[in-house]
């Protein structure tokens, strides 16, 4: 793959899961590398293991084996919660916590894993919301009163404000209209342009900005390649 | 009447009380509730278990041996723990030991605080005081622990999406579970707080009723009842908090990943 030093690398990721009493390999020796600036698009049929792969990369898959490294540092040398602050997963189901938009955007900064990080100011939060086209969403709006598209953007923004190095998105636009989907694509493109790496599972729309295309089937990565290679 | 002014209930009269169940049974038949068998079994169990208890307690009170008291308390604690574990079917494996530990700590601290500091029994194991008090402490902390554990794991499951999002943001096990822990403890404590607030106005508490029927002065019985209600609240609070704090981690892996119900395996 790329000549640049990999930001995130995975080698021989394997995981099994008991399905109807049999052990099924949900990941079967998956290896991949993402470099800074990459937007990798992961496709594959339902049940191919796309979500499972994202969980494994975030160290959220119990029982997964294989080697993971972030900028050359092996995962075994990093606390799981610290790893997750750098390799950030946005799950498919948007799950904001009860409260306001502001309390949700600030939530990551209340966690021990970021105890040394200064939370963004109210002005910065307002600016960030405006940037992603949520100009009409007040910071004190209750998240229960957001539309699906707004909630998805708030959840993605919450992740981006924590400044991770790698962003893993699980069908970020699955239930979004075209305008919201375009906003999400613009947000991820800017994140990559600023030196981050993105891996997104796509189902409906293809991301025109993708630089790497991966195909997962039966727990194995097949085909796929780098557009700019 | 017995010498201390109690009207004793004769054996025939005791049997007559079963008439209440005959009426209830007849009603159940008439409306088709399908509860006749359950009612019959429950009534027989009431007679058998309580009479057996009376016989055992009469003996225990008479022999007054410390190890008999300790054995009996141990048996009661284990039975209460088994009931707690059974009542939380969604709970992860290995719940028995934290539940047992919570019960033992609660029973010992609250029971002996009451007998030693408030009632001031001359002998620490005085069965006439220790056993009924420990029974109330265990019974109430059992209910509180069972309620909070049941609520804890069902709420964690209901919040699994939010927990995944929190964990992905770097939350540790406590940070991910905190909201459910709070809710579970509130669920465990609210019934006790409600019954404290209603005591004396809405109902005359059971223990006081018993003492008054057995010939005690109502004011003296009230003093005991106040101690008992506060003791029950403490037992419920201590037991629930210990049990919840010792078990919420069991729904997570060592790496902080929440295990959904299907991945946790049955409670044992």
Q: Your description of this structure?
A:
- The complex is a heterodimer of chains A (229) and B (268).
- Chain A is an alpha/beta fold and 229 residues long.
- Chain A is built from 6 helices and 10 strands, in the order E-E-E-H-E-E-H-E-H-H-H-E-H-E-E-E.
- Chain A has a single domain, classed as Rossmann fold (3-Layer(aba) Sandwich), CATH 3.40.50.
- Chain A has helices at residues 50-57, 80-86, 101-106, 122-131, 148-161, 178-193, and strands at residues 8-19, 22-34, 39-43, 65-70, 73-74, 87-90, 166-170, 197-201, 212-217, 220-226.
- Chain A has a 6-stranded mixed β-sheet with strand order 6-7-8-3-9-10, with helices on both faces. A 4-stranded antiparallel β-sheet of chain A has the order 2-1-4-5, covered by helices on one side.
- In chain B, helix 5 (96-118) runs antiparallel to helix 10 (218-247).
- By secondary structure, chain B is mostly helical.
- Chain B has helices at 11-16, 18-31, 36-63, 66-87, 96-118, 127-158, 160-168, 173-198, 206-213, 218-247, 261-264.
- The interface between A and B is medium-sized, with 28 and 19 residues.
């Amino acid at each position: 793959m790329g000549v640049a030093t990999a930001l995130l690398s995975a080698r021989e990721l394997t995981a099994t899961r008991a399905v109807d009493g049999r052990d099924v390999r949900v990941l079967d020796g998956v290896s991949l590398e993402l470099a800074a600036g990459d937007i990798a698009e992961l496709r594959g049929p339902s049940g191919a293991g796309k979500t499972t792969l994202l969980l494994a990369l975030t160290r959220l898959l119990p029982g997964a084996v294989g080697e993971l490294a972030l900028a050359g540092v092996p995962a075994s040398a990093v606390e799981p919660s610290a790893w997750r602050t750098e390799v950030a997963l946005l799950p498919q189901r948007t799950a904001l916590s009860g409260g306001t938009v502001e309390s949700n955007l600030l939530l990551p900064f209340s966690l021990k894993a970021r105890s040394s990080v200064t939370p963004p100011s109210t002005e910065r939060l307002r600016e960030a919301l405006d940037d992603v086209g949520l100009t009409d969403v007040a910071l004190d709006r209750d998240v229960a009163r957001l539309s699906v598209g707004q909630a998805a953007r708030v959840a993605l923004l919450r992740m981006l404000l924590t400044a991770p190095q790698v962003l893993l998105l699980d069908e970020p636009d699955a239930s979004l209209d075209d305008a919201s989907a375009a906003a999400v694509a613009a947000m991820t493109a800017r994140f990559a342009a600023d030196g981050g790496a993105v891996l997104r599972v796509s189902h409906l729309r293809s991301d025109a900005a993708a630089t790497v295309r991966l195909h997962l089937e039966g727990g194995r990565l097949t085909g796929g390649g780098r557009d700019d290679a | 009447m017995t010498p201390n002014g109690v009207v004793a209930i004769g054996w025939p009269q005791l049997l007559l009380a079963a008439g209440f169940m005959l009426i209830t049974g007849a009603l159940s038949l008439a409306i088709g509730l399908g509860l006749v068998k359950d009612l019959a079994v429950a009534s027989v169990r009431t007679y058998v278990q309580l009479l057996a208890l009376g016989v055992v307690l009469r003996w225990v009170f008479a022999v007054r041996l410390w190890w008999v008291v300790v054995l009996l308390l141990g048996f009661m604690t284990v039975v209460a723990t088994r009931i707690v574990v059974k009542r939380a079917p969604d709970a992860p494996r290995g719940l028995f030991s934290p539940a047992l530990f919570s019960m033992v700590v609660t029973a010992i601290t609250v029971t002996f605080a009451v007998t030693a500091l408030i009632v001031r029994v001359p002998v620490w194991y005085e069965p006439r005081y220790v056993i009924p008090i420990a029974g109330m402490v265990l019974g109430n902390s059992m209910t509180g622990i069972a309620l909070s554990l049941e609520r804890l794991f069902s709420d964690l499951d209901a919040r699994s999406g939010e927990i995944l999002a929190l964990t992905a943001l770097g939350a540790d096990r406590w940070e991910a579970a905190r909201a459910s822990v709070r809710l579970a403890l509130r669920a465990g404590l609210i019934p006790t707080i409600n019954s404290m607030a209603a005591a004396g106005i809405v109902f005359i508490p059971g223990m006081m009723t018993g003492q008054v029927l057995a010939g005690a002065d109502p004011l003296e019985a009230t003093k005991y009842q106040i101690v008992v209600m506060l003791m029950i609240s403490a037992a419920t609070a201590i037991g629930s908090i210990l049990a919840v704090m010792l078990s919420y981690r069991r729904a997570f892996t060592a790496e902080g990943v929440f295990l959904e119900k299907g991945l946790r395996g049955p409670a044992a």
